[in-house]
TrEMBL record:
The keyword Lyase applies. This is D-cysteine desulfhydrase. Its EC number is 4.4.1.15. The gene is dcyD. Signal peptide: none annotated. Residues 33-306 form the Tryptophan synthase beta chain-like PALP domain. GO terms for molecular function: D-cysteine desulfhydrase activity. InterPro entries: ACCD_DCysDesulf, TrpB-like_PALP, TrpB-like_PALP_sf. Belongs to the ACC deaminase/D-cysteine desulfhydrase family. Its cofactor is pyridoxal 5'-phosphate. Keywords: Lyase, Pyridoxal phosphate. It comes from Emticicia aquatica. The keyword Transmembrane helix does not apply.
Length: 310
């Protein structure tokens, strides 16, 4: 990955605007006490109220790259409720980038959801296309006719995962090790596109086991994608990770009454707000099954990937 100056004006702007490193918070429960587990939450949800969690981690080096190249326009993709669209629009507002969002669903408009309304208010130019057309563009965006007017923009894929994303995610692992004073036994995170867990795996200590909770139904194809991303980042694959495939509660953005009840109780007990699409499913899986897999006296870090749109 290209090197970026730590003293550039843009880097200084990041440090002034964002809460980094994000805090790490220990949580307590009788369930943990029974096995002498030390359980921490990496609070990436607190990085910023609008550019939070893994979305900022993935955007960071994309924005630094654009800034270094003198490019002030970002084009990206997503659906009507996309956290990535939300965060990208906010980043454009705060860091003075033009943002263009190609949105899946030609029946939509900027008032179809609070996410799209927020993006439009931030100045993002929204282009609505059919789901079929969206798939065509996403397959090869740089050569698609719709993108030609924006050929001088930096193109970031749906969800934000590309060659620059993993380095930003990897910084989270460095922060955790410094904050704890040692590498934890386990790091656990939700898995959507595979970018976040890939960045964690690539930067993790070999002695740390990485567990991913897949939020998609039939998401097994992601394992190959994760191996590809890790190998591209560090030149080799690693075997210190495992994905749990059956904790999705029906599929992406699906919810069960048990999940909703758990989230309410978790928020009451720990005073940490979580959402049902990513982090909620991961915390639920940890309480219901993962904690039973972990040996006594282990140190566990759960990654709160944000996703709490204002």
């Amino acid at each position: 990955m290209r090197e970026f100056s730590a003293n550039s004006p843009f880097t200084k702007q990041i440090s002034q605007l964002l809460h980094l490193p994000s805090p790490i918070q220990q949580i307590y429960d009788e369930l943990f006490d029974a096995k002498a587990l030390k359980v921490f939450v990496k609070r990436d949800d607190l990085i910023h109220s609008e550019i939070s969690g893994n979305k900022w981690r993935k955007l960071k080096f994309n924005l630094l790259n654009a800034s270094q190249l003198g490019i002030k326009s970002i084009l990206t993709f997503g659906g009507a409720y996309s956290n990535h669209i939300y965060a990208s629009a906010a980043a454009g507002k705060y860091f003075d980038f033009e943002t263009i969002g190609v949105i899946r669903g030609d029946e939509l408009n900027e008032n179809s959801s609070s996410t799209l309304r927020f993006a439009a208010e931030c100045g993002m130019k929204l282009h609505f296309v059919s789901r079929e057309y969206y798939r065509e563009i996403r397959t090869n965006p740089s050569s698609h006719p719709l993108i030609h007017p924006f050929k001088h923009s930096i193109i970031i894929p749906e969800g934000g995962t590309n060659e620059f994303a993993l380095g930003g995610v990897g910084e989270m692992v460095e922060e955790i090790t410094e904050q704890l004073g040692f590498a934890p036994d386990y790091i656990i995170c939700p898995v959507g596109t595979g970018g976040t867990i890939s960045g964690i795996i690539a930067k993790s200590d070999e002695k740390t086991k990485i567990l991913g909770v897949c939020v998609l139904k039939n998401g097994h194809y992601l394992e190959q994608e994760i191996n590809h991303l890790v190998e591209h980042e560090i030149g080799k694959t690693k075997d210190n990770f495992e994905i749990l495939w059956n904790e999705h509660h029906g599929g992406y953005a699906k919810k069960t009454p048990e999940l909703i009840d758990f989230i309410k109780e978790f928020e009451r007990k720990h005073q940490i707000k979580i959402e049902p699409i990513y982090s909620g499913k991961m915390f639920y899986a940890f309480y219901e099954s993962i904690s039973k897999m972990i040996p006594p006296n282990s140190t566990v870090v759960l990654i709160h990937t944000g996703g709490i749109q204002n």
